[in-house]
């Protein structure tokens, strides 16, 4: 069955009240579930530290004060005062799943969690059908449908949720690491609160670590954490609370000190890299490339290399980076350094010829060249000004002496008559009108006076004097 056909099944009308479903029909659908409930005592492996330390109340949530202040939309939602569907977006490990659970608990609703990575139309349809039956049976337990990685649902799958969200058959809580504006269909956006979660700052991550060390749900004081190890864990977390607790748990398992002390050496032994937060189709993609170009424009090669490295390590397409360098070479360096475009174009060719990892060197060379080059936006300013005049109607007829005279009868029309061939003059420059009549004397290119454009400005002034008579 196609997604389109299957999606139509979401509009099933609820049964009549007399058709009260059997109790077993009200059981939640669990396929594709992302819930990680703690295993009963003595059964199965112990849940990860990050799961055990998941906040049980708003008071334990850290790092999202902008959403949880008194009267803020998310606090009102969690407290059950304003039931509405919501899309939570933010970096990993910032509390999206936790907040979905708190919304469910505070509003007394049944919590159903699905992952867009494994669940399809069938699983989502099952949850919505159970929710409809609960409503028809006057069951007080309303349904919170949590969909993790909702941006991975196709447009058709997202559209199929609209009816259930519109009628509040379910309270949808969608979580995504990408900006919903890029990844969620507009009708679903308009029916939901869109709330952005911030990456945790160092203070928030440190609080999570301290709580996990001391709390009975966590390590229960069985280990201690040195200041150096704590600082390193905070840095390694890169704003991801889950990552910090995962690293802490690995370090605790590796402790051999008889006093149970987690030292810097222990942490360095188990974790040795920082997570790079970057999405190639969303806001991080655009934010980082924007910072990259602005750093080059601002003549800061070190910052530019940082953003270049961030993109390369995160897996950005090097061809995209190369294209931006070629554009920047003309847009922000231009003729202040005529070799800038050559360097950027050569880097783009190197990307095509050799690829990663070696092409990173050519990209770095072009980045440094452009960042340290004298800057001028005279080229882009000139072409944009000329195009603006064209769009406003300043496009008169071509002067007769410049028209094509290479066909029979052209001279009878006056074409090419009176044209002066510049190479007949020693300096190859002659006094002659080139633009249409209404644009005579209009200057588009204004050299900046920086770098090579200093000499160009002096020469251009003499050229204009001669050409314009």
From TrEMBL:
- Residue ranges for the region (Disordered) are 1-50
State the superkingdom. Answer: Bacteria
- Output the Gene3D superfamilies linked to this UniProt entry: 1.10.8.60, 1.20.272.10, DNA polymerase III clamp loader subunits, C-terminal domain, P-loop containing nucleotide triphosphate hydrolases
Q: Where is the AAA+ ATPase domain?
A: 82-219
> According to the UniProt entry, which residue ranges have a biased composition of type Basic and acidic residues?
21-38
- Show the InterPro entries listed in the entry: AAA+_ATPase, AAA_assoc_2, AAA_ATPase_RarA/MGS1/WRNIP1, ATPase_AAA_core, DNA_pol3_clamp-load_cplx_C, MgsA_C, P-loop_NTPase
Q: Which UniProt keywords apply?
A: ATP-binding, Nucleotide-binding
The yes or no answer to whether the keyword Hydrolase is present is no
Q: Which CDD domains match?
A: AAA, HLD_clamp_RarA
Give the record's family classification.
Belongs to the AAA ATPase family. RarA/MGS1/WRNIP1 subfamily.
Q: What is this protein called?
A: Replication-associated recombination protein A
**UniProt source species:** Actinomycetospora endophytica
Lineage of the organism: Bacteria, Bacillati, Actinomycetota, Actinomycetes, Pseudonocardiales
């Amino acid at each position: 069955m196609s997604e389109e056909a299957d999606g139509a099944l979401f509009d099933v009308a609820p049964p009549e009240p007399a058709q009260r479903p059997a109790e077993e029909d009200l059981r939640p659908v669990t396929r594709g579930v992302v819930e990680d409930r703690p295993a009963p005592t003595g059964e199965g492996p112990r849940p990860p530290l990050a799961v055990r330390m998941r906040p049980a109340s708003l008071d334990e949530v850290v790092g999202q004060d902008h959403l949880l202040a008194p009267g803020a939309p998310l606090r009102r939602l969690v407290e059950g005062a304003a039931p509405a569907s919501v899309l939570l977006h933010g970096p990993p490990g910032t509390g999206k799943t936790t907040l979905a659970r708190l919304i469910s608990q505070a509003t007394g609703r049944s919590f159903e969690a699905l992952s867009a990575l494994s669940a399809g139309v069938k699983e989502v349809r099952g949850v919505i059908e159970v929710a409809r039956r609960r409503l028809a049976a006057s069951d007080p337990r309303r349904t919170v449908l949590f969909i993790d990685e909702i941006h991975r649902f196709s447009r058709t799958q997202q559209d199929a949720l609209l009816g259930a969200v519109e009628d509040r058959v379910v309270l949808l809580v969608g979580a995504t690491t990408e900006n919903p504006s890029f990844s969620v269909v507009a009708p679903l956006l308009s029916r939901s609160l869109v709330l952005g979660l911030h990456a945790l700052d160092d203070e928030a991550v440190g609080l999570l670590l301290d709580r996990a060390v001391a709390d009975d749900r966590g390590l229960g004081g069985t280990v201690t954490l040195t200041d150096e190890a704590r600082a390193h864990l905070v840095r390694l977390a890169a704003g991801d609370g889950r990552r910090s607790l995962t690293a802490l748990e690995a370090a605790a398992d590796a402790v051999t000190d008889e006093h149970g002390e987690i030292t810097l050496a222990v942490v360095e032994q188990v974790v040795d890299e920082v997570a790079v937060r970057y999405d190639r189709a969303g806001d991080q993609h655009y934010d980082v490339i924007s910072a990259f170009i602005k750093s080059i424009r601002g003549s800061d090669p070190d910052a530019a290399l940082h953003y270049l490295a961030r993109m390369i390590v995160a897996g950005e397409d090097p061809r995209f980076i190369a294209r931006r360098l070629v554009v920047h070479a003309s847009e922000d360096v231009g003729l202040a350094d005529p070799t800038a475009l050559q360097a950027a174009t050569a880097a783009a060719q190197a990307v095509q010829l050799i690829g990663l990892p070696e092409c990173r060197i050519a990209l770095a060379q072009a980045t440094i060249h452009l960042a340290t080059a004298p800057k001028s936006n005279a080229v882009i300013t000139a072409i944009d000004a000329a195009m603006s005049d064209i769009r406003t109607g300043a496009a008169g007829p071509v002067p007769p002496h410049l028209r094509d005279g290479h066909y029979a009868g052209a001279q009878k029309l006056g074409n090419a008559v009176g044209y002066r061939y510049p190479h007949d003059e020693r300096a190859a420059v002659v006094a002659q009108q080139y633009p249409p009549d209404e644009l005579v004397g209009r200057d588009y290119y204004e050299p900046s006076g920086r770098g090579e454009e200093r000499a160009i400005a002096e020469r251009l002034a003499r050229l204009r004097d001669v050409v314009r008579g």
